[in-house]
Each structure stands twice: as structure tokens, then as C-alpha cells.
């Protein structure tokens, strides 16, 4: 079939809206009509050329929601008409990783996903006879996309696509890092570095978990009012702090954070996030994706004295199991998504979403089809 997609032909260039060919689903795959997709910092990161797995030309996008319109042979877990959220972290429930119950990093299709192809090693997208690569196994910047069956979460049909698409990455990553990865306990002090599309969801996850003090750290002063709406109790702009940020945060939290989260992707703030943690028990979770090749450092004594450094991908969530539950939380009013979606636009305007992100003017832009 012919589909309408925003194609990334090369790094650092605007996306180009094209009509391209999409082959139907093969065995174990589904064809999904994408109704809405968020534009995340990670799409911009790959487009910037800094992502070691970035391949061009490709169709970016990993934060979508839509409807199954066709299924390939052998598909049993979803059917035509089901509403779904694509999963860049699939859940096969059969691989060593899934069965371990220790991680959400299903490895069933990891190798082919990282090479921009479907599990059979080929791409379903073509333009002028040339392959166009899939991205994160999802490629939601297209009005139709093909995904492995294990990479879609079936969701309730009354959930609005233009809101719950955000659960496909940002919401689950932030809220999940609090609940699944850190397991924040009621009464905790939490410090969140970066109050963008991910950090705000860490803030609302911390509120949901019953945290006491929720400190937000951001160099953009406009983030203060927004983050307060989601539960932030104290705002720190590092540009306005005299002296070192770490002792300032340790003092503010009366001894250090019980939990800190780095939601920027900067190795300097990753170190600050660890070192502002409480001696003896503070845990720091890295969510931000730093440029490939960069390294983190700290004095080993920081860990010897009880601080713990962790990372979190997709909020530690098992997509097919946990994503429908997060959709329920949204529909029940337990989490707020609407106020984070600051801009909505048609596919033709998708490059505006990247500009708004780089200018710090948006939290989330959502493209509707
Ligand atoms: P964003 O651009 O919306 O937000 C980043 C925020 O950090 C902005 O508010 C910005 O003002 C602030 N900031 C930048 N430099 C700062 C500094 N030195 N000190 C304090 N604040 C600073 O980005 P986002 O969409 O929220 O994504 C954040 C990071 O999370 C990115 O690296 C993204 O790739 C990553 N990410 C990780 C996962 C995962 O599963 N681990 C999933 C999605 C996104
Ligand atoms: O299993 O080796 C692996 C990789 C899993 C990819 C997890 C990606 C999480 C960070 C990227 C940000 C996604 C938007
Ligand atoms: Zn698996």
C-alpha cells in the first residue's frame, strides 16, 4: 500500500513528507494505522546524528497510538480493530530476559530492531525501489506502520489516541522509572534533573508514589510553573545557585535525596544527580541518553558509602503488561497527560515540533493523522 510518512533522509536535515510503499504484515506481524504520535527528544537525538544506531533514510517516531487494520499469519494476541500502542521495548514473554522477571529488556527481536529491519531481516518500507529503514521497531511518523505482534500493547477503546500516544514513551518512562526502577516509597525526598517531557512524568510519578519533597532542577525558568502543576514542591535553577549545586541540593534535602533521576542526557548532571543522593541509601536513576562515546564518572567512594547508581529504559515497564494499566490510570484521572501536550499539528508540520523542542517552547508536540 501507499502511505504518507515523514522521512529522515540524512542527519541534521528536516524530515521530508513523502508517499512511500509499505508492504503488508508478514508472519507474526501486524499492520497498524497510526492515529497520533508524539515527538520525543530521542527522535531529535537520532536525527542529530549522535545515535550510534541511527540509520538513514529512516522513518523516525516511537510514541504512537493507533488501530490494527491487518494481521499476518500466526498472529493470535491482537485482531483487526484493536486499539494499540506500539512498543519500542517489546515483551515476548518467552525469551530468557522476559522469563527472568528481572528486566523489561526483552531481547527477542533486539538484533534486527537495532538494524532498522523487521525480525525476518527486511524492511517493509520502500521509496523509489530503495529500502527505507524502520526506527526502534516502531516508525510512528507514518500513517501506517508494520510491527511485530510482540511490539504492540492492546489498550481500551475509549482512550483518546492524541493523548495516550504519549504513554508509548514519555509517560511510561518517567512514571515507570519511579515505580518500577526506583520503587520510591511514601515520604521520600526526590530530586529530578530536567523538567522536560520525561522529567515532568518523573515528578508526577513521585507524587503518585507519595513522595514528600519533590525538587526539580532545570536551567529553563519557564519549567517551574509547569512542574508545580505536576507535584514539584521546590524549584532549583542551577544558574541562580551560588557555588556548587551538589552541596546546595544536599542542604535543601537535609542530607541528600533518597532518590534522584537524571532526565537530561548530560554526563555532568548525571554525576551531580548521583552525588546529591543521601549517604548510605540514596539511589540515582539515569534516564537521559547521553551522546554516544561519552562516559560518566564519580569518586568510587560515593558508591562505597552507600549511594546506588542505576539506569532505566522505558521506565522498567513490560509493555504489553504495564502499558494498558497506565492507560487505565490516565482514564481514571490518576495521571495527567493533557497539560503536558502543549502543541498538536498535522504531519506536514512535523518539523515545527522539532523546532519547538529545541527552543524549549514545548513539552510534547503530538502529530495527528
Ligand atoms: P526535553 O528536552 O524535553 O527536557 C530536557 C530538560 O532538561 C529541559 O527542560 C532542559 O531545559 C533541561 N536541561 C538541559 N540542560 C540542563 C542542565 N545542564 N541542567 C538542568 N537542566 C537542563 O527532553 P525529554 O524528552 O524530557 O528527554 C530527556 C532525556 O531522556 C533525553 O536524553 C532522552 O533521550 C531521554 N529518554 C530516555 C528514555 C529511556 O527509556 N531511558 C526514554 C525517552 C527519553
Ligand atoms: O535491549 O539492548 C537493549 C536496548 C533496549 C533499548 C532501550 C532504549 C531506551 C533508551 C532510549 C530512549 C527511547 C526513547
Ligand atoms: Zn522477551
What brief labels describe this structure?
369 residues; alpha/beta; Quinone Oxidoreductase, Chain A, domain 1; Rossmann fold; 2 domains; 7-stranded mixed beta sheet; 6-stranded parallel beta sheet; 17 strands; 25% helix; globular; binds nicotinamide-adenine-dinucleotide; binds lauric acid; binds zinc ion
Tell me about the biggest sheet?
7 strands, mixed
Total E-strand runs: 17
Structural class: alpha/beta
The topology string of helices and strands comes to: EEEHEEHHEEEEHHEHEHEHEHEHEHEHE
| Count of discrete alpha- or pi-helical segments spanning 4 or more residues | 12
Question: Secondary-structure map with pairings?
Answer:
Blueprint (H helix, E strand, L loop, with lengths): L1 E6 L8 E7 L6 E11 L1 H7 L16 E8 L11 E4 L9 H5 L9 H5 L10 E3 L2 E3 L11 E5 L3 E4 L5 H4 L5 H13 L6 E5 L5 H10 L4 E5 L5 H7 L4 E3 L8 H8 L6 E4 L4 H9 L7 E4 L14 H4 L3 E4 L7 H13 L9 E6 L3 H9 L5 E5 L1
Parallel strand pairs: 10-11, 10-13, 11-12, 13-14, 14-15, 16-17
Antiparallel strand pairs: 1-2, 2-6, 3-4, 3-8, 3-17, 4-5, 5-9, 6-7
The structure holds nicotinamide-adenine-dinucleotide, lauric acid and zinc ion.
Protein model, in words:
By secondary structure, this protein is an alpha/beta fold. Helix content is about 25%, strand content about 25%. Strands 3, 4, 5, 8, 9, 16 and 17 form a seven-stranded mixed β-sheet that branches. Strands 12-11-10-13-14-15 form a six-stranded parallel β-sheet, with helices on both faces. A four-stranded antiparallel β-sheet has the order 1-2-6-7, with no helix packed on it. Helix 5 (about 170-180) crosses helix 6 (about 200-210). The longest helix is centred in the middle third of the chain and has 13 residues, at about 170-180. The model has no long low-confidence stretch (mean pLDDT about 95). It binds nicotinamide-adenine-dinucleotide (NAD), lauric acid and zinc ion. Lauric acid binds near residues 40, 42 and 89. It holds the Pfam family ADH_N. One of its GO terms (cellular component) is cytosol. This is S-(hydroxymethyl)glutathione dehydrogenase. Its EC number is 1.1.1.284.
Amino acid at each position: 500500500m501507499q502511505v504518507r510518512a515523514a522521512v529522515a533522509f540524512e542527519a541534521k536535515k528536516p524530515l521530508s513528507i513523502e508517499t512511500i510503499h509499505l508492504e503488508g504484515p508478514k508472519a507474526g506481524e501486524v499492520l497498524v494505522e497510526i492515529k497520533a504520535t508524539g515527538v520525543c527528544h530521542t527522535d531529535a537525538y537520532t536525527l542529530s546524528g549522535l545515535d550510534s544506531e541511527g540509520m538513514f533514510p529512516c522513518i523516525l517516531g516511537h510514541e504512537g497510538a493507533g488501530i490494527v487494520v491487518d494481521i499476518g499469519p500466526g498472529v493470535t494476541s491482537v485482531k483487526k480493530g484493536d486499539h494499540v500502542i506500539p512498543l519500542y521495548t517489546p515483551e515476548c514473554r518467552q525469551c530468557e530476559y522476559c522469563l527472568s522477571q528481572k528486566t523489561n529488556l526483552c531481547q527477542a527481536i533486539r538484533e534486527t530492531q537495532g538494524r532498522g529491519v523487521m525480525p525476518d531481516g527486511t524492511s517493509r518500507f520502500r521509496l523509489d525501489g530503495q529500502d527505507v529503514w524502520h526506527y526502534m521497531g516502531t516508525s510512528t511518523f507514518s500513517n501506517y506502520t508494520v510491527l511485530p505482534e510482540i511490539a504492540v500493547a492492546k489498550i481500551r477503546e475509549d482512550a483518546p489516541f492524541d493523548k495516550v500516544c504519549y504513554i508509548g514513551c514519555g509517560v511510561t518512562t518517567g512514571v515507570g522509572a519511579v515505580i518500577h526502577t526506583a520503587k520510591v516509597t511514601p515520604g521520600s525526598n526526590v530530586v529530578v534533573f530536567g523538567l522536560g517531557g520525561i522529567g515532568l512524568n518523573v515528578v508526577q510519578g513521585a507524587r503518585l508514589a507519595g513522595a514528600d519533597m519533590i525538587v526539580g532542577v532545570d536551567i529553563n525558568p519557564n519549567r517551574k510553573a509547569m512542574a508545580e502543576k505536576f507535584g514539584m514542591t521546590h524549584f532549583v535553577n542551577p544558574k541562580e545557585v551560588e557555588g556548587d549545586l551538589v552541596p546546595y541540593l544536599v542542604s535543601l534535602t537535609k542530607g541528600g535525596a533518597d532518590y534522584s533521576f537524571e532526565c537530561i542526557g548530560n554526563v555532568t548532571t548525571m554525576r551531580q544527580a548521583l552525588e546529591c543522593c543521601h549517604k548510605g541509601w540514596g539511589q540515582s536513576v539515569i534516564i537521559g541518553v547521553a551522546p554516544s562515546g561519552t562516559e560518566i564518572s564519580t569518586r568510587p567512594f560515593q558508591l562505597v558509602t552507600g549511594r546506588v547508581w542505576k539506569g532505566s529504559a522505558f521506565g522498567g515497564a513490560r509493555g504489553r503488561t504495564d502499558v494498558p494499566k497506565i492507560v487505565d490510570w490516565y482514564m481514571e484521572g490518576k495521571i495527567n497527560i493533557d497539560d503536558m501536550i502543549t502543541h498538536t499539528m498535522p504531519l506536514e508540520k512535523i518539523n515545527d515540533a522539532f523546532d519547538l523542542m529545541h527552543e524549549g517552547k514545548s513539552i510534547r508536540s503530538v502529530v495527528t493523522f
